[in-house]
Amino acid sequence: MPASNDASQPAPRMLLAVDCATAPPSIALLRGTRTLLEWQQSDQRRTDAWIGATLDGCLQESGVGPGDLDGLAVTVGPGTFTGVRVGIATCLGLAAPRKLPVAGVQTLEALAEAWSGEAGLIAACVDARRGQVYGAVFRPGPDQALPLSPLWGPAVETPSAFVAALEGFDEDLLLAGSGAALIDAASTVRRAGEARPLAAAAGRLAARGWPTDAKAPDWPAAVPLYLRPADAQPPKNPLLDRR
Fold it and tell me: Residue 181: which domain range?
C-alpha cells in the first residue's frame, strides 16, 4: 500500500539525543518516540573526545545526515559539571548552523523515563559526589506516551536524607540511578537493575513535547541545571578580590 500523502499527518520528527551528564555517556537517534539506534561509551576516553568522534560515526552508520535532523535533545543536569557542559555545547554547536531546536531535558527526568513502566513511582538518584545524591521522585503516566509527573525534588541531599524523603511514599517505588550505590544496603527501598543509557529516554521526552501539528516545539532551553556550586572554582584575581 503506498504511503499516505496526507499533510495533516506529518512524519514523526528525526531527533538526535545526547546524554553526557551521567556515566557512561550515550547518544541515540529517534524517529518520534521510537529509538532507531543507541550508542554508549565503552572505553576510557574523555567525554569530549568520545562524543565528537562517535557522533560522526553514528550518523554515518545510520545513513542519517545532519540535514535530516529535525531537532536535538540533551540532558542538562544535574550530573557531572564537565559532562553537562560538553553535552550542551556539542548539541548547540551541531544545531546552530542549521537553526535546529534543542531541548534541554533534566537528567533525573530522563532517568525516571528510562525506568517508567517498572513501578508506580520512580525515585531517580544520581551520585553527586561529596557524599551526596541528586534525587527526585516521579509518577509515570498511565500511558507511557504521557509525561512524567514530578512529586518531589529535584534536590541535593545526603543519602540518608533522601531515603527519609522516600519513606513518605507508600506506593510501589523503584530506586534507579548511580546514587543507589550510596544508599545503605539495609534500606528496604526496591532498587533497579543494571544502569540504562539515558540518551533515548531524553529523546522520547523531547519528542512528546513536540505536538505533531506544531511547526516548532516549545521545549525547555538547553541551559545547565546545577543544584549546587561546582567543585572546582576559578582562582581569585588579587587585583579584583581585595578585601
Answer: 14-208
